Amino acid sequence: MVQATDGNFYGTTSSGGVANCPDGCGTIFKITPSGTLTTLYSFCSIGRCADGTYPTAAPVQATDGNFYGTTYGGGANLSGTVFKITPNGALTTLYSFCPANGCADGLFPAAGLVQAGDGNSYGTTDEGGTQ
Q1: Half-sphere exposure of 57 (CA within 13 A, CB side)
Q2: Is 74 helix (H, G, I), strand (E, B) or coil?
Q3: Where along the chain do its domains lie?
Q4: pTM of the full predicted structure?
Q5: φ, ψ dihedrals at 33, nearest 5°
Q6: Could you give the CA distance from residue 77 to residue 11 in angstroms, rounded to a whole number?
Q7: How far apart, in whole angstroms, are the C-alpha atoms of residue 57 and residue 20?
Q8: 3 state DSSP class of 35
Q9: In which element (H, E) is residue 37 found?
Q10: pLDDT by residue (tens digit) across 72-96?
């Protein structure tokens, strides 16, 4: 989890939620310091899971106040996504990774993102990329 500037904690679950996966496709949640939990988003709520599935790392809060993260699966090519979510739970899929090994952008991001001093976010994928 990450503690945000509003004092609340934000995190992900790699399964659960109310979606089309057998055990749920994962969620993004907020929990207050006193322990009140709110599910902000359940993945695979869009056809063919274009919004992503199975987030495996905590989101990072960027300087714009929004949270950014990755999903291991789903997206337009079923190979993972990069997403933005507002503190109120409005999710935008920013990028869908390539559907095959050997793609220059890789596939299946399993780690979270970091925001660098230049304002850009950086991350890694488990497979693919150029050699």
Answers
A1: 24
A2: coil
A3: 2-114
A4: 0.92
A5: -55, -25
A6: 24
A7: 21
A8: coil
A9: strand 37-42
A10: 999 999 999 999 999 999 999 999 9
